[in-house]
Amino acid sequence: METFDYVIVGAGAAGCLLANRLTADGRTTVCLLEAGPRDTNPFIHIPAGFIRIGYNPRYTWPLHTEPGEGTAGRRILLMQGRTLGGSSSINGFNYTRGQTGDYDEWAALGNRGWSYADVLPYFRRTERRVGKADSRYRGKDGALPITDCDWRHPLCDAFIEGAAAMGIPRDTDYNGPRQEGVGYYQRWIHEGRRVSAAKAFLHPATSRANLSVRTGAHATRITFEGRRATGVRYVRSRGGDELSVQAAREVIVCAGATHTPQLLQLSGVGPGELLQRLGVRPVHVLAGVGENYRDHMMVRSIVRVKGVETINSTARGWRLVREIVKWSLGRPSILAISPSVAYAFWRSRESVGRPDLQFHFSPGSYASGLTGMLDSFPGMTLGFYQLRPESTGFVRARTADPFDDPAIQPNYLDDERDRRVVVDALRLTRTLLHTAPLMAYHDRDEAPPASAQSDEELLDYARERCSTAWHPMGTCRMGPASDPSAVVDDELRVRGVEGLRIVDASIMPTMPSGNTGAPTMMIAEKAADLIRGRAPLPPEHPGID
Fold first, then answer.
1. pLDDT at 545
2. 421 near 348, Cβ under 8 Å?
3. Is 471 a catalytic residue?
């Protein structure tokens, strides 16, 4: 049986970064287990390839949520990355840190060292900001290049112009002192190619003799001696022989907000009633494992347009050939853009103190509002989600078989406050799509139809057409000992056991205001210092201009 200092489960955004940092001294040994294959498929590295790779079960976990009232009884497809780089190898690239208040709230909940001033230096250490930046907020020397979208489109320009006329600040650095604003997205695309966490952090470390990366390794359970985690068991295929690796120091679970709680539950760490139902021998009863699930619920509005070429036609026939040629020559092309090209962060009502909505604009539209299959007509899409939803759900293992998908119930729109925000946001979306600059291209409202006017009609539309933004978090939340729902402490150690740490989006106590990829990498960057026993980076207080 092989023994390493650390065994990391999951080669996603957090696992890739941790594997790099923990092996940097050349002496500390790490085994990184990833259930999926290597990231050799070329569609992973071509940004537009997300349409193909994001629905490929070889590289994704094709999970589904449970039916619920908030989804009109539908099950929502919730793909998660299943390859080196995890979801950073299949997702939409947008780099969003969140708001200062998000992390100050984490600290106010009793998590020492997690205020915005505390985490800002870790955000900065991770990134290499390419382009204009305030060095007080942005990093220049990190491994992850963050660029501005260099592709321009008349519909995006008109959206930005119209939003600015409504009072939304134009072209701000939403990862700087203030988030509110409108402009083109920042993303981890560089020189026309995706820069996943695997490409930025893991691949530069794979030549190190003290790092062992094992793909096709599906973790089945964490092993314990008493209450101390000692290693991980895994298989190469369902029904295959079980293999083991030992951890001399720690097991670090980075499997994400859906699979991390499932693995803990199957290993005997979780709610007592659930462990009993699964027939799993309890190692430590911990009620919060799998609870506190939150996700961003996406609602998209579509308008048919006229007088302009959209992605619906650009991505077909000779026009697509033209874009391939442009991309191969290093010029701006639809092959190197995010599915959401322009952004807006704004408030659902004037009385709201800070932005509570994130808008995603695309000069194209997708059948049934799902990313992947383009409509046959020319269209534009404006999607949104509530930045900090109040509704919470759960993730629970269905059976003791680690190959069975867990039950995922997000309980979208369960909280009345979320329903109010969604209705307000749909009205604001309609206003943004009907500004004077965009009306020059407006043909007709496609979805929701112009006839949908009442609160109930708009809420029904949201229930019938909503989908996930693929931002699950919170299922192993961080909190003080006084918090009965807390799973890890503020050093990310699982409460009640030894030698077990969690480093991924599941530890987030509340939802950050935006995409979760950047905060997850920040968490891993900070965790690397915690695990190595290093003093934290000094807090930074640049102030707000």
1. 42
2. yes
3. yes
